Amino acid sequence: MPYQAWPWAKKYGWLEDKYGLSWQLSMSEPHEVSQKITPLLMYTGPVTGKAKEAIEFYAGIFPNSKVDMLTAYGKGEGDHPGFLKHARFRLCGQRFMAMDSSLQHGFNFNEAISLLVLCNSQQEIDRYWTALSADPKAEQCGWLKDKYGVSWQIAPHIMQDMLSKGTEDQKKRVTQVFLKMKKFDIATLKKAFEG
Predict the structure, then answer these.
(1) In the CATH scheme, what is the code of domain 114-194?
(2) Sequence-ordered list of residues with C-beta below 8 angstroms from that of 53, at least 6 positions apart, any chain
């Protein structure tokens, strides 16, 4: 979509960068911009019409979550009435947007984009993993796919320290161990780190 004035923004445009990543640029009133970059999930293909369901599902899993706005298509507005035209919501305080589109886009959710959830305990990892994972074949190295096809990484916060502050031997041991894991196990990672 060309960068120009639209009913919902002073200026708005939709483009694809040289790496194939899709971006929407919107110029609105300054007081409306509270987060510079906001992930927008478009439910298309086999999950068209499931944006509202997905938002409610995610909000039920993550703390400090809230649905800020749901705007559905009305009759004659370009898509199926009831499908989400625009939605704003928060997960753990992070802002997201979502929409449905029944048009033929030629893409669905895939592993090229994933949402990283850093966890402070094994209990937290287990809870998110159990709630989100819907495709055992997609599970590897802390990655999973939910029932809508969205990719998530459920990772322990401590692993960042292991891989950034450890010795080369420690980093190598931790890497060799986590590459064999599906869901991360903090105790096993710590054991590998300590040698």
Answers:
(1) 3.10.180.10
(2) none
